[in-house]
Write a sequence for this structure.
């Protein structure tokens, strides 16, 4: 069986890496087509995954339109050469690869606000989403319990490495907070916003009164010269270890908040996605007591300080995490089972065709 898997973001690398390894261990062939993003490629290398870069990450819709033809040319060429039995992806690129190779394509989605499902739906065989997904995508739509991030952060597959504290330069009992700032440059971020420059500075100043603060700034443009915070500068593959050891995450982004929840780390999320039309996975995680989705910046400051002052918060979060993951699906097993199933189907079809010809 041959599986072609699209990795367009760091989160995609994490989501599929265990499935790729497991499929290869079972004797199947896997190829990852990835976008040239510095973090994405570093993670692919760290996980030792078989990959080919199809193009650079576009920083705007204008640049995406300019680069799209070359992206598609490389994707089509690689897909035809590899000749997969099944394709996994998220949006139009995977749909194109499946269409030109006449290969069953599986879209794995978790964001109702993205247009990926609109573009891909006519061309894919199935769409997989968490059960909390708030849209009905028709008869191709299948749901699993939990969130996509359990593929790599379920306690059965991830064990935090406490030595990350030494690399960060913090003591064994020294409290620290991670702050993640979004660049809001994705096509799904159009019209959305997070913390303003002034709010970022005030947030970091307030947090620094209670803990050591590390900042992961997606834009890479934050000036730390007069800030009471340090840049998070470890290898991207160490982020989950750092997140697991943290006492708090505050973010105006999405994925890291879900990751913190699965690691039992108190998490505060604030951006303009938050509200009545928020994504189902964040609503579910808040109902489980693992995430606080806040619209008000004043509430962010107040609750962040409250959680850092609460010595029992991390223990409570870990207990809630254990309860949450107790009955959820194993996403890696699900992906592997689907891949092998479609591979078997294509083999049977090819064999039947050969029998008919003879």
């Amino acid at each position: 069986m041959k599986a072609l898997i699209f990795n367009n973001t760091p989160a995609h690398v994490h989501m599929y890496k265990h499935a790729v390894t497991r499929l290869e261990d079972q004797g199947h062939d896997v190829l990852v087509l990835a976008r040239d993003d510095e973090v994405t490629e570093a993670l692919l290398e760290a996980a030792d995954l078989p990959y080919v870069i199809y193009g650079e990450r576009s920083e705007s819709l204008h640049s995406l339109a300019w680069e799209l033809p070359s992206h598609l040319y490389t994707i089509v060429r690689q897909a035809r050469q590899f000749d997969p039995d099944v394709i996994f992806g998220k949006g139009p690129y995977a749909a194109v690869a499946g269409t030109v190779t006449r290969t069953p394509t599986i879209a794995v989605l978790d964001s109702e606000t993205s247009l990926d499902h609109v573009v891909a739906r006519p061309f894919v065989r199935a769409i997989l989403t968490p059960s909390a997904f708030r849209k009905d995508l028709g008869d191709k739509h299948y749901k699993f319990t939990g969130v996509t991030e359990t593929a790599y952060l379920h306690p059965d597959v991830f064990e935090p490495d406490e030595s990350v504290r030494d690399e960060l330069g913090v003591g064994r009992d020294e409290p620290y907070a991670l702050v993640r700032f979004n660049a809001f440059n994705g096509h799904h971020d159009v019209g959305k916003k997070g913390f303003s420059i002034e709010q970022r500075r005030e947030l970091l100043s307030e947090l620094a009164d209670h803990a050591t603060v590390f900042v992961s700034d997606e834009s890479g443009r934050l000036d730390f010269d007069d800030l009471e915070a340090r840049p998070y500068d470890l290898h991207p593959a160490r982020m989950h270890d750092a997140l697991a050891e943290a006492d708090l995450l505050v973010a105006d982004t999405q994925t890291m908040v879900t990751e913190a929840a699965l690691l039992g780390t108190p998490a505060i999320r604030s951006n303009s996605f938050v509200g009545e039309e928020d994504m189902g996975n964040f609503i579910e995680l808040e109902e489980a007591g693992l995430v606080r989705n806040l619209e008000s910046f004043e509430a962010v400051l107040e609750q962040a300080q409250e959680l850092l002052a609460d010595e029992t918060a991390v223990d409570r979060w870990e207990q809630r995490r254990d309860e949450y993951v107790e009955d959820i699906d194993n996403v890696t097993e699900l992906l592997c089972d689907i891949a092998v199933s479609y591979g078997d189907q294509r083999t049977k079809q090819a064999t039947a065709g050969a029998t008919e010809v003879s």
Summary: The longest strand covers residues 29-36. The domain at 2-154+328-357 is CATH 3.40.50.2000 (Rossmann fold).
